[in-house]
Specification:
Layout lengths: L20 H14 L33 H16 L3 H15 L13 H6 L2 E3 L2 E2 L18 H6 L7 E10 L12 H16 L8 E3 L5 H10 L8 H6 L16 H4 L7 H13 L13 E8 L3 E9 L1
Parallel strand pairs: 4-5
Antiparallel strand pairs: 1-2, 3-6, 5-6
Helix pairs in contact: 1-10, 3-7
Length: 312
């Protein structure tokens, strides 16, 4: 792309952290400013391994269930075993996020999905039905970062948003756990680092955009991010606290389940959503009096990025 516009011979850095790519790139920019464009083409449908001829090669049944639907189905089943979380509670995540998407003109799907429709849709990997899986789409997002001195010099403080914390964690070494992937450990580590860096606790967060790649993941991440105690994710959802108008709205954009999941761009898209609310520019989906927001994204097998943003 740079060759086509004549911008050759300049430094190029490729940031590849799976679903956490955009959030990682954002953090690299933030670090650079503290110390003194990427693109990706996505397509709809399942991400599968391909051979040298470009043909899809199925892995199911050969070395176990390693596809993302299976991984996050295992996470949901383990949560259900440990805490009694039900299929209906997982399905309600999708109902909530699809409802939120009807208020977001940038969402891929802007339609209601009643509970019976979610639960009755094609089963992909129990307990996740088709309407409980994220939507792989093309999408783009960008962020402009500047030091506070530069923002003041340019007269942009009125709409400025401050980065209170930027935490990036990679998977710790452990023996592979086929029941509960280490998505939880890496998220908890990144969240703990972010809270300490920002000097705030989860009770001070006004809204969250988290990595709901599957409906099962959202409930588990409520707990990983400290929004509630372990085992209380389903109860938190049922209470309405994570819906627009609740105590801690989650994925008001519609989330990856309905807004769409362009992978590399997702981390910055989440940041865009939070910034829009902190500026009071979210329209019908605006979280009232939002001052502090959190974004969370996981690139499974490599990284988790958590950002805490504050209205300047």
């Amino acid at each position: 792309m740079l060759q086509l516009i004549g911008q050759t011979g300049v430094p190029v850095v490729n940031v590849t952290n799976a679903c956490a790519t955009g959030a990682t790139a954002f953090r690299e920019g933030w670090i650079a400013i503290k110390a003194g464009v990427g693109s990706e083409k996505m397509a709809k449908g399942m991400l599968v391994r391909k051979n040298t001829a470009g043909e899809a090669v199925p892995s199911e049944g050969l070395i176990g269930s390693g596809t993302m639907p299976a991984v996050f189905a295992q996470m949901g089943l383990e949560h259900a075993r440990a805490y009694g979380t039900t299929l209906e509670q997982f399905a309600k995540v999708s109902v909530k996020n699809h409802h939120h998407s009807t208020l977001n003109p940038k969402a891929m799907y802007q339609k209601e999905t009643p509970l019976d429709e979610v639960m009755g849709s094609e089963m992909i990997s129990y307990p996740n039905t088709k309407l409980m899986c994220s939507v792989n789409v093309d999408g783009s997002a960008a962020a402009v970062l500047a030091s506070e001195a530069a923002v003041k010099r340019l007269g942009l403080m009125a709409r400025a948003v401050r980065v209170r914390a930027s935490a990036l964690a990679s998977d710790p070494f452990s023996e592979r756990n086929l029941v509960m992937p280490d998505v939880s450990t890496v998220t908890r580590y990144a969240a703990k680092t972010a809270y300490e860096m920002a000097g705030v606790g989860p009770e001070e967060i006004d809204l969250v955009e988290l990595h709901d790649c599957f409906a099962t993941a959202e409930i588990v991440h409520y707990e990983n991010l400290g929004l509630c105690a372990d085992g209380e994710g389903g109860v938190l959802l049922d209470s309405g606290a994570t819906a627009l108008g609740g105590r801690i709205p989650v994925n008001v954009s519609g989330g990856l389940l309905s807004k769409g999941h362009p992978l590399g761009a997702t981390g910055i898209a989440n940041i865009y959503e939070i910034v829009t609310h902190l500026r009071g520019e979210a329209g019908a989906r605006q979280v009232p009096d939002a001052r502090i927001g959190m974004t969370h994204v996981v690139g499974l097998g490599s990284a988790c990025a958590v950002h805490i943003l504050e209205k300047a």
